[in-house]
Specification:
Structural class: mainly beta
Oligomer: single chain
Radius of gyration: 17 Å
Length: about 170
């Protein structure tokens, strides 16, 4: 039997808790929204499908993020699943949300920013926002989506990597 450490989630075990969560590889998304001052983006790996009928997805935004309030009240937004080649874009929007300089994007029919070349895209209307500890759980109704073949960008144990195309 392999040795393991067991913890109770507390402030003093928070680092170990983050390490345990990091064992689960997740896809990388960039969520975009058009604000009164222009396009806004945020990199997030807390994305999940919720329902096929109706088509619902969720993602989570940290309260400590300066972008939290704008996304938590956004009526429409777009979730982009990043292609493995889009690591620089994902890193860019993890640091800043308003800088779309040299970023290829267009507007969808609702006026929301759509990034070029994502692996998949979910254009959403806000369904609900739920409290989730130090995050908000943002539930969206998918009004339109797009998908293409390619390799997805993965985040696991603090590192980015790829996953071979299964199409």
């Amino acid at each position: 039997m392999i040795s393991e450490d067991t913890f109770i989630p507390r402030l003093e075990s928070q680092t170990a808790y983050r390490e345990a969560l990091g064992c689960f590889g997740t896809g990388v998304t960039v969520v975009t929204h058009m604000t009164d001052t222009g396009p806004l983006a945020m990199t997030a790996n807390s994305f999940a499908s919720v329902s096929l009928d109706p088509a619902l997805v969720l993602w989570c935004a940290a309260h400590r993020s300066a972008r939290h309030a704008l996304f938590a009240k956004a009526r429409n937004y777009v979730i982009h699943i990043m292609d493995e080649s889009q690591l620089p874009l994902a890193r860019h929007f993890s640091r800043t949300g308003h800088d779309f300089t040299d970023i290829e994007w267009s507007k969808n029919p609702e006026g929301q920013p759509v990034l070029a070349d994502s692996l998949a895209r979910f254009e959403c209307e806000l369904e609900a926002v739920y409290p989730g500890g130090d995050h908000s759980i943002i539930l969206g109704k998918v009004v339109r989506f797009a998908v293409r073949p390619g390799s997805g960008l993965i985040f696991k144990r603090g590192q980015y990597g790829g996953f071979s195309d299964l199409f």
